[in-house]
Amino acid sequence: MASKRSEDEYGEKVNRAIVDTGVKMATGLAIGSLFSLVLFKRRSWPIAFGVGTGFGMGYSNAENDFQNKNAALLKRLQKAPASS
């Protein structure tokens, strides 16, 4: 089986980030709309808060996905004293 090319992995990460952020924003919109209609007398701030929270969560997940997961492990291994 052929290994994945780096640009394919990057493309998959971008697609996953866009979809994840979109889903979280849509969920925030739905929950904010529900709270706006039921609890807050049709005010608009719960909707904006829900969408903003969803965007922030999606952005945070994307940021973690794009960071190199092995960087911390490599730093620890380089600093560890060599055993004899």
TrEMBL record:
It is found in: Mitochondrion inner membrane. It is a single-pass membrane protein. Its main location: mitochondrion. Keywords: Membrane, Mitochondrion, Mitochondrion inner membrane, Transmembrane, Transmembrane helix. Component of the mitochondrial contact site and cristae organizing system (MICOS) complex. Component of the MICOS complex, a large protein complex of the mitochondrial inner membrane that plays crucial roles in the maintenance of crista junctions, inner membrane architecture, and formation of contact sites to the outer membrane. Belongs to the MICOS complex subunit Mic10 family. This is MICOS complex subunit MIC10. It comes from Crassostrea virginica. The gene is LOC111133413.
